[in-house]
Design brief:
The protein is mainly beta. It is 9% helix and 41% strand. The chain has two helices and 43 strands. Strands 1-2-4-5 form a four-stranded antiparallel beta sheet, with no helix packed on it. Strands 7-8-10-11 form a four-stranded antiparallel beta sheet, with no helix packed on it. A hairpin with a 5-residue loop joins strand 40 and strand 41. The radius of gyration is 54 Å and the shape is elongated.
């Protein structure tokens, strides 16, 4: 009986032990083993790996790749879930701080391995060396791929000499960027342009003087003759470049133009010389179309002053005639205006019509006179029958022609045929 009970217990316990062993094996297969470790971009195992499966708790030691530095424990551990457990333990190394005297370093992202920087120079300096550099592996560390460049100050050759003058720059071989010199002229000569010029940079490499150097010239303006004027300042009689005069007018006269004028490089006064206009006089000349002034005793100009009662004569230009049969004169009135003028009108010559006649027959016609062309018997008008004298002294439309026509009868219908055009068609 005891033996039977022991046998039954053994069977039960044997089955339970087997089941426990089976579960342990299955769990070890499902959860415990790890596959090959991941390939890391920043590190690799210290020892070569030949196995493809690793037990739970397996630890692998790693070393950082060139260009990376260790920042944490460099181990991978196979955990109970069958995964490799690790944290980032290598970081990119940093290149040294780049310095560029008299220049600018542009960091695109950072100074770590693989980063790129660009160089440029301050105004007045030009770059010697590469414009870019890359942080790369060099030996056991990292450094820039290209030697750091240098910014060299631009230089100008000696400033140009000028005739009748000199500059203050001395006798140096080169002049650094931003240097300046000042020009002066010999006695009795005037300086035209900028007295000082500076060394500047062109195309970021070439030193040039700017602006252009001045010139020294003899500039002489004579004292202007202004009737009824009073000179307030500038008493001549000769004036040089940029000398000025201030004028005013005597009582009863007003100034027409600028009271302040300067002697300019063309030996003329600017603005133009003013005039003193009588308060009891006519000034502006009337504008008469197609006419010109008789200049007899007057040298007429827009600045002329004309006393009350002054009479001026004018003529109609060739091809024009006075509208009214009145004298061609204007007179300055007491109200300081000019009398109305007799206008000039356009003249057109008589059009020549062969084998025809005009509705109004005379030697000359005026704008906008209109005439009609009538052809002789047996002739027809080629063109417009009516033409007009235009302001350009021409007929519009163009003058027509009278050409022979032949009458052809078809029963009761009579048709005129232009023989000239018929001949052209046959040819």
């Amino acid at each position: 009986m005891a033996a039977l009970l022991f046998s039954r217990l053994w069977k039960v316990s044997n089955s339970t032990l087997f089941q426990m062993m089976l579960v342990t094996v299955l769990l070890a297969t499902v959860l415990g083993d790890c596959g090959p470790p991941p390939k890391l971009p920043f590190a690799s195992p210290i020892n070569p790996l030949y196995d493809t499966e690793f037990k739970t708790g397996t630890t692998l030691k790693y070393t950082c790749h060139p260009g990376y530095g260790k920042i944490n424990s460099s181990r991978l551990i196979c955990d109970a879930k069958g995964s490799w457990n690790y944290s980032i333990f290598c970081a990119k190394k940093r290149c040294r701080n780049p310095e560029l005297i008299n220049g600018i370093v542009e960091v695109k992202k950072d100074l770590l391995l693989g980063s790129t920087i660009e160089f440029s120079c301050s105004e007045g300096f030009f770059l010697i060396g590469s414009t870019t550099s890359r942080c790369q592996i060099q030996g056991k560390g990292v450094d820039w791929s290209d030697p750091l460049p240098e910014c060299v100050i631009a230089k100008c050759e000696p400033p140009p000499d000028i005739r009748n003058g000199k500059h203050s720059g001395g006798d140096r071989e080169f002049y650094p960027y931003a240097s300046s010199v000042t020009y002066t002229c010999n006695p009795y000569f005037s300086l035209i342009g900028n007295a000082s010029i500076s060394c500047t940079v062109e195309n970021k490499t070439i030193g040039v003087w700017s602006p252009h150097p001045p010139v020294c010239e003899k500039i002489v303006c004579h004292r202007p003759q202004i009737p009824k004027a009073i000179f307030v300042s500038g008493f001549g009689p000769l004036y040089t470049y940029k000398d000025s005069i201030v004028v005013n007018c005597e009582e009863g006269y007003s100034l027409r133009g600028s009271s302040l004028i300067y002697c300019e490089a063309n030996n003329e006064w600017y603005p133009s010389v003013p005039s003193c206009v009588s308060m009891d006089a006519c000034t502006d000349l009337p504008d008469i179309s197609y006419a010109s002034w008789e200049r007899n005793d007057y040298n007429l100009s827009d600045h002329e002053i004309f006393e009350i009662g002054t009479e001026l004569k004018y003529l109609c230009k060739p091809g024009y005639r006075a509208v009214l049969d009145e004298p061609l004169t204007v007179t300055c009135q007491e109200n300081l205006t000019w009398t109305s003028s007799n206008e000039c009108e356009t003249l057109c010559l008589k059009p020549e019509i062969v084998n025809g006649r005009l509705s109004v027959d005379k030697d000359q016609y005026v704008e906008p006179e209109n005439v009609t062309i009538k052809c002789d018997s047996g002739y027809g008008v080629i063109g417009s029958k009516s033409i007009t004298c235009s302001e350009t002294r021409t007929w519009y439309p163009e003058v027509p022609r009278c050409e022979w026509v032949e009458s052809v009868t078809f029963g009761l219908l009579s048709v005129q045929v232009n023989m000239y055009h018929e001949a052209c068609i046959r040819e």
